[in-house]
Design brief:
Two copies of one chain form a homodimer. By secondary structure, the first copy, chain A, is an alpha/beta fold. Helices cover 41% and strands 18% of the residues of chain A. Chain A is built from 17 helices and 19 strands. The longest helix of chain A is centred in the first third of the chain and has 25 residues, at 124-148.
Amino acid sequence: MRSSEESALLTDFYQLTMLAAYFEEGMTETAVFEFFVRKRPECRNFFLACGLEPALDYLENFAFTQEEIDWIARLGRFKPAFLDWLASLRFTGDVDAMPEGTPFFPHEPILRVVAPLPEAQIVETRLINLLQLSTLTASKAARVRLAAGDALLVDFGLRRAHGAEAGMLSARASYLAGFDGTSNTLAGMRWDIPVYGTMAHSFVQAHVSELSAFEAFARIHPAATTLLIDTYDTEAAAEALVPLAHTLRAEGIALRAVRLDSGDLAAHARRVRAILDAAGLAEIKIFASGNLDEYEVERLRAQGAPIDGFGVGTRMNVSADAPYLDCAYKLQEYAGKPRRKRSEGKATWPGRKQVFRRYDEKGRLAGDLLTLVGEEAEGEPLLQPVMRAGKRLRAAPPLSALRAQAMASLNALPPPLKSLGAAPPYPVAIGDALTRLAQEIDAQAH
Amino acid sequence: MRSSEESALLTDFYQLTMLAAYFEEGMTETAVFEFFVRKRPECRNFFLACGLEPALDYLENFAFTQEEIDWIARLGRFKPAFLDWLASLRFTGDVDAMPEGTPFFPHEPILRVVAPLPEAQIVETRLINLLQLSTLTASKAARVRLAAGDALLVDFGLRRAHGAEAGMLSARASYLAGFDGTSNTLAGMRWDIPVYGTMAHSFVQAHVSELSAFEAFARIHPAATTLLIDTYDTEAAAEALVPLAHTLRAEGIALRAVRLDSGDLAAHARRVRAILDAAGLAEIKIFASGNLDEYEVERLRAQGAPIDGFGVGTRMNVSADAPYLDCAYKLQEYAGKPRRKRSEGKATWPGRKQVFRRYDEKGRLAGDLLTLVGEEAEGEPLLQPVMRAGKRLRAAPPLSALRAQAMASLNALPPPLKSLGAAPPYPVAIGDALTRLAQEIDAQAH
């Protein structure tokens, strides 16, 4: 059996029941779906688009295996002709999307699929699954980067991410959003993200003494030693390692950093900094971890805690203060006719849409316009062609290039949006033609 | 490249730096690690153990590929002899664990690993990753089941679960915790979970009219038709489908249910129920979905809303009110000596532990005792041997059997723990020998 990350069967069962109907009814004309976020949580001033490359991988490789088709057949709910057709189904459509790392706002599509209805429909579940997770964690990680200034930031969250793919894609998203690296070794291998790692408390505990653990580790990893000093008593450990640090330095081994992982991190950092500085060990940096997020990082920096780097895990990876987005992938047009869902609280803007972004004289975001494709407008059109007839128009860019672009975009945010507190909403105007179209559709319905 | 679900490299990089040190130092004596949750969030009265079988799969198949070893080598931080040894590393240890579906409480280990130190260490990250996710969602899903009484419950959360594995393991966990099925088709295939699915708004929108969408769907799926009636106007759709339902009934096609997905679900359900009943269609059930969780299900049932089943997604799958657990996998013993971490706020109980559970005369949970293995105690010992020398002691039980056991366990919870509000803590006593051991270790440290 294939891994769930690769399987076309990783989809809501209603996609299959709907496809059976589309097949019987011959409903295979062109459909347009768009992915967007409906609402902004209080604790997010913007979203950072992420997940496009994994989504394109999925679309390029979409196919059922014979094993999967056989299993569907055994459910006894589908006709053989449909199953044969399903076995041959591939994604042959077009995709336009915002580049990964682009800040965006509610109701702005970040991805548009134009494809025969069954193809555009069946990929719904997994596209949402991939785009939500990546955008969710990139948007959270961007806040951590904005709070951390130039401090070193390492993703520590694999263990409490929600499963394997969440650990992978949150490592990718956080690096794209400005982290410096990850503890997730496989993510390092897959996307060339710098990997960071030192020691766990168990390493200290397994040795006869804390100091013997430190010494053994430093001698085995002379070029990259960070010592975890909070297993028993943080300041006692800092005092104890002073003579060891001098001995090692005499042998040419420089300790790089100590890590604090519990207690009042600001107070410990101050005391440890003083101990190290007094001992002539100013070059040893202080790295902090343990229940961190953007709020805590901001608080520590506001207190002037002498911390050079942060390991940020769980709360970033699961986006703890907003662990899901109110996002959707909605039909906007079928067979040339715009469509609009009008369910209470869930109404959508119909048709194929584009987002134009204006910048002020300082290069900062100054306002967006949501338009119908083809409407003339000022500014930069954010959705760009990325796939035609089921094939990527270009290879996946290196993640480091996407990261550089994301950093530039974050830098161009208006200052209120960069703060952690709730900012006034960023202006997103609706184009005239789009407004008229929505009104026309509503009028026809009555 | 292997999928991330299978890769031994899906681990924190510090596991590799520590293993290199253990290898150099010859530290391969037996280590004991236990997985437990430190603290209970306000919104959970108990946890439901889940994730053991995926964890055992991982341990049985643990091995690096040559491609992975070659990548590690290229980092230039490890010696060839270590890499050769790493390539041959397998998990050869023992595992004892609580059966999946067992309710448990803070500081009670649900899984113990006894293995040579490097083996027990390197599996830390992925074991936490698997056990947290499954336990998190099973514990949330159990609350939804307790709130829903006998109503039909279907997992709808794949699209907003955090990636592929989260969608899979939350489908598994929610079924184990009492859901009736899932929309996740691949989870249905992998674990024989009943799959449910009907239609999306896009299906209705793609047709020339709502009614033509309903009729086409019913004729193509005569045995299992649920119609989504909130795309435009819920009550209008209910009125409109009455004549269709009678026509279809005359042809032997019985509509099974209608689905409501937006607005005031209780009010819509009442009005739709009245429309259907007045038309002699009492057999058509009402199924509700949209932003549901245990609180909303309880509220709808308390209002007497005539809803027969619930599709519960996002908030359950991501455990939105508690999206992570304060859990850990900690070294408790090495080379025959008990170990205790004393970091502030993170102190652990040392040694190999067992949990004894007592029941009252009604078969309800009456109190637990956390003891050292070997201590005599009343009650049922909850941790049982499941793996010896790296091999399962028995095949994975069918998920339906685990589900039945979990249902019986939930039923045996004391009534206050079954409520959604915060209950007084369940009594977990600490055995005398364990208390003494912790004191001895602390005394030695001073």
